[in-house]
Q: What sequence folds into this?
């Protein structure tokens, strides 16, 4: 069985980056100094992933203000305004607004950051359902957002060497989904994945997504991700038609899990589902953790993944 480990989502910034960006806003430093601080963080994160032994490498989305801002600012028909709380975390994002037909008119500049980390690279994007829920005024525009914004964004990242895509879907895990939206959701996922020709992981987290797994497993993706912190292995079902992403480490707590017990949990999940491939990652982004703890979580993730590989080989 193929087993892969990687860290998805936004990674914490160092105090040096935070201070540099704050000083730039106050006119006390230069953009060059800020760029150097970000470059140092990015290089440190790349070394961490490589030294730990992960299989795919991320730039940590360090220059992304949030998961949506780069997409909104690089297109027409979308604007950002007003702070909205990110689920039940002490964190906020600027809400995108649909002002007209959404179109990604240019490649977000932050996409070039992936070129500065080793290959093979992993990209993180919001799933179409998540994007349609956070965009004010989106209504039933999920497929339109997928076709006009997410698909060209994914193609741009694919052209920059990304060989794995991670679509974050916390909205379904936290709020659920109305039955009437399933067909649109599946069509929107197909719009993003259809022309990529690389694995795409659809990751449900911030809740127990087991009630949705029967449908999600049939989506056109390489793997479906589950939040194993919130979801019982016994509820995952059997005879999966797709791979499994095991969100096996808690990205919202500083407590460090036992690697042996965590690996055993992933092996149980793999055996129960019969998934052809297993991807290991955290159950959510780790952006809100202290940087030192986040570094330890990444090393722990690689340890867990190595143990799972040994058990399933």
A:
């Amino acid at each position: 069985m193929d087993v892969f480990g990687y860290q998805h989502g936004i990674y914490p910034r160092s105090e040096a980056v935070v201070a540099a960006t704050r000083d730039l806003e106050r006119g006390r430093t230069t953009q060059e100094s800020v760029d150097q601080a970000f470059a140092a963080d990015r290089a440190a994160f790349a070394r961490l992933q490589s030294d730990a032994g992960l299989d795919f490498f991320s730039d940590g989305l360090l220059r992304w203000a949030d998961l949506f801002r780069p997409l909104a600012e690089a297109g027409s028909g979308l604007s950002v305004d007003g702070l909205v709380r990110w689920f039940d975390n002490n964190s906020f994002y600027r809400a995108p607004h649909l002002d007209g037909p959404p179109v990604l008119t240019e490649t977000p500049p932050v996409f070039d950051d992936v070129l500065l980390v080793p290959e093979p690279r992993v990209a993180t994007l919001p799933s179409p359902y998540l994007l349609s829920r956070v965009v004010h005024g989106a209504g039933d525009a999920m497929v339109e957002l997928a076709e006009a914004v997410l698909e060209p964004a994914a193609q741009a990242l694919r052209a920059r060497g990304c060989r794995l895509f991670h679509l974050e879907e916390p909205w379904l895990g936290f709020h659920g989904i109305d039955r009437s939206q399933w067909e649109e959701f599946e069509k929107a996922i197909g719009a993003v994945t259809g022309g990529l020709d690389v694995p795409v992981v659809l990751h449900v987290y911030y809740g127990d997504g087991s009630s949705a797994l029967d449908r999600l497993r049939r989506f056109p993706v390489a793997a479906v991700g589950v939040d194993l912190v919130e979801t019982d292995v016994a509820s995952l079902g059997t005879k999966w038609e797709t791979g499994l992403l095991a969100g096996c480490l808690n990205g919202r707590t500083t407590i460090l899990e036992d690697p042996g017990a965590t690996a055993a949990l992933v092996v149980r999940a793999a055996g129960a589902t019969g998934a052809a491939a297993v991807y290991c990652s955290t159950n959510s982004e780790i952006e809100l953790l202290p940087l030192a703890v986040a570094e330890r979580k990444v090393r722990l993730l690689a340890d867990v993944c190595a143990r799972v590989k040994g058990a399933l080989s």
